[in-house]
Amino acid sequence: QVQLVESGGGLVQAGDSLRLSCAASGRTSSTYAMGWFRQAPGKEREFVAAISWSGITTYYATSVKGRFTISRDNAKNSVYLQMNSLKPEDTAVYYCATRPGWVVETSISEYDYWGQGTQVTVSS
């Protein structure tokens, strides 16, 4: 089992920045990719960003490219999401997730473990 805990969410104004953190604990695989997803009220969970074990490969949803940056620190078993130029449409509960191996995926079904989520609210 792997436990993931997100933090860093909050209430901000449009144009502000936030940095989300996700710490993993438990029995992680030797290598694993990590990703960020979000879910707004009444909507399905959607992909935001993902990163490989090495940190070399990253994927971003079109809606956040140029504004969000995903990174990781394997020594701390953590992944981060720097969110700049936030928009009201970014309002959602943000979840981090992990999957074993080197391959980076963007599909929700490819991830095995999920955190509890952290709320991000962007006002206009």
What is the percent of helical residues?
Answer: under 10%
- The shape is globular
Indicate the low-confidence ranges by residue numbers.
none
SS-derived structural category = mainly beta
Radius of gyration: 13 Å
> Would you report the number of β strands?
11
Helix-strand pattern, N to C?
EEEEEEEEEEE
Range of strand content:
over 45%
The tally of helices reads 0
Distance between the termini: 40 Å
Largest β-sheet summary = 7 strands, mixed
Average pLDDT reading? 95
Summary tags:
124 residues; 7-stranded mixed β-sheet; mainly beta; 4-stranded antiparallel β-sheet
List the helices and strands and how they pair.
Elements (H helix, E strand, L loop, with lengths): L1 E6 L2 E4 L4 E9 L5 E8 L6 E6 L6 E3 L7 E6 L4 E6 L8 E9 L12 E2 L3 E6 L1
Parallel strand pairs: 2-11
Antiparallel strand pairs: 1-3, 3-8, 4-5, 4-9, 5-6, 7-8, 9-10, 9-11
Structure description:
- By secondary structure, the protein is mainly β.
- Helix content is 0%, strand content 52%.
- It is built from no helices and 11 strands.
- It has strands spanning 2-7, 10-13, 18-26, 32-39, 46-51, 58-60, 68-73, 78-83, 92-100, 113-114, 118-123.
- Strands 2, 4, 5, 6, 9, 10 and 11 form a 7-stranded mixed sheet that branches. It has a 4-stranded antiparallel sheet with strand order 1-3-8-7, with no helix packed on it.
- A hairpin with a 6-residue loop joins strand 5 (46-51) and strand 6.
